[in-house]
Amino acid sequence: MNLIKETAEVLCKNIPYFQGQRHHLTLALAGWLRKRNFTREEVEEIVRLIALRFDDDEIDARIHNVQTTFEQDLSNVAGWSSLVEIIGEETAHELDAKIPRIFLYTAEDEMPLFRILRYDTAQRKTFKTQHFDGKEWKDGLGSARKVLYKLPKVREAIEKGETIFIVEGEKCVHAMEKLGLIATTNPFGAGHWQDTFSEQLQGAQKVVILPDNDSAGLKHAEKVKASLEKHGINARIVELPNLEKGGDIADLITRGGIDREKLLNLVENNKEVPHILIPVLPLAQAVERAKTLGEGQWLIEKVLPERGLGVLAGRPKLGKTELLIKLISDILTGADSFGRKTQSKKVFWLTQEDSVTRLAQGLLRYGVDPTLLETSVYVLDYTQLRTTIKGEDVLYTAKELGVGVCIVEPLVALKELAVLGRSGKLSYEAIYDVLLPLALKAKNHGVFILGVMHSPKGRSVVKDIADVVEAPMGSTSYSAVADSIIGFGLPPNARTNAERRVMAAGRDVNLDAILQWNGSRYVEADTSFELFLITPERRQVLEALAQLGKATPSELSRYLEKNLNTTKWLLLQLKDEGLVVSANGIYELSGEACKILKL
After folding, report:
1. Is 0.90 surpassed by the pTM of this model?
2. Which of 71, 179, 453, 543 is the most exposed, fewest CB within 10 Å of its CB?
3. In what helix (H) or strand (E) does residue 183 lie, and over which residues does it extend?
4. What is the reported pLDDT for 465?
């Protein structure tokens, strides 16, 4: 089936071609298809086929609508917004994915050579190439001559001495046209520049290359520049400011980040320096960019940053999910957490280990308003899930939902890590290569991902920060990438099994706290953690001195009903640790001990 018949078939199945709205519908369709670069003749034939399918007896009037549309200035014709009003947004988006945008490549005399059909779905972009054999379009490039996009306009601009902009992709060419500037691109994307394209630009006095903001785009720009200079054409690479990773000039124009005047000023004032393939910034600029990416902003102050990647690690069956419920409750309600300020955000909770009922009941136990479960907490719909989920799909979904926090439980459920695990390739380097791009994308999307890791190689007792760093799967690659890593386990010398130590480390992250289980939820202990590091026997001595004020070893021995030599030995240990001081054989608490005991 050729493109005209295929497009008409899709439209017939999806549009409400009812009496009373056919006039407005054909105007909207004609404008929309024209803006997708269908020709007048193609649109006329598509509209004629639709009219025939629905036994429309006013075919001439529908064709007249198409002719009127193509006679107007493109900026004045109906299009996407009109189509949405008539057929609804959901149906319009379905059509957007099924009907391609057409990018026509012609010779200097505007004779069609080949065209690229681009289909945009929610998952990815796909492309199809067709060549013109003089009579009709056929699939594939065939023997068509490869040329630059918009070549006739480019040659005309060269004759006038105008600046030619080289961008990456047809979408960017059209964005530049909206600024009234002449731009071109080579077919088939980055890395496909040929010397014949440079030959097509012979005579150009000024060529400016605007690369995409990624390594492939920068390498492509360097290749284009080298080819042009080999053909005696002066060219400069001008990198665009304030572009997100992977962004391009079209993105910048769409969000209003640059206009014609700003772009021309940038080109005029740009002093090109030898290009460095590793992206660098002056430190002062890097600081400013870090601020725009949320550096220094917190979900929970000095515990969980606003953006990036975090890991919660601990041995199985110690209560990590309960800790998550507490943390998320604090974030949903904006309540202080561990005495730190908290920023309220929506949450996307991806768990393959806990029931949604348990999560809901847990959040309610911690005082979350039931309405927030409807408006601010999202979970996976497993009835619709067919495979593991990619990290970038998680970020895309979070952005669409307006979510600030994504819980991934367990982190290895992400497709990228699951694939490594199944192939036995969970090495430091492989994990790092997966998680670093994910962390950077999370920052660019304004999202924080908190992944949960079970630590078969970690310890149940969290003694110090080293246990936190080494906890996730025994690999420091997780902690090397993570902006925050939280260790969870039993405190040393715990007095009861209801106590848990929470310790966090990372970039400007610092937390060391005790939680106590009160039978229904974790509560933050008033007791400072340093006290938990002290053995029960020495703790008894400190508490006795707190009661007595000052005492000799003999007095303490009688008070504690302990052997005198044992008491002396305990006092010497406490003195070495700076927790007691003595003068003339009389002992008392040091200032540090008073602080620990909150005296």
Report:
1. no
2. 71
3. strand 183-184
4. 58
> What is the C-alpha to C-alpha distance for residues 589 and 534, in angstroms, rounded to an integer?
14
Note the Cα 379 to chain centre separation in Å: 18
Residue 134, phi-psi category: left (phi > 0), alpha (psi -120 to 50), beta (remainder): left
Pick the CATH number of 534-596 from 1.10.10.10, 1.25.40.10, 3.30.700.20, 1.20.1250.20: 1.10.10.10
**Which segments of 270-376 does DSSP mark as H helices, in order?**
283-292, 320-333, 356-365, 370-375
Q: Which CATH superfamily is domain 298-529 in?
A: P-loop containing nucleotide triphosphate hydrolases (3.40.50.300)
The neighbouring-strand residues paired with 505 are 485, 510
Taking 70 as the pLDDT cut, the residues of the chain under it are: 1, 122-123, 271-279, 281, 293-294, 386, 423-426, 455-459, 461-479, 493-495, 526-535, 598-599
- Three-state DSSP state, 116: strand
Is residue 476 a contact partner of residue 470, using CB atoms and an 8 Å limit?
A: yes
CATH topology for 151-269 is Dna Topoisomerase Vi A Subunit; Chain: A, domain 2 (3.40.1360)
Q: Spell out the residues 6+ positions from residue 210 whose beta carbon is closer than 8 angstroms to its own.
A: 165, 166, 167, 168, 172, 238, 240, 248, 249
CA distances from 96 to 7, 319, 384, 402, 457 (A): 11, 47, 23, 23, 50
Q: Which of 590, 464, 459 is nearest to 529 (CA)?
A: 464
pLDDT of residue 273: 47
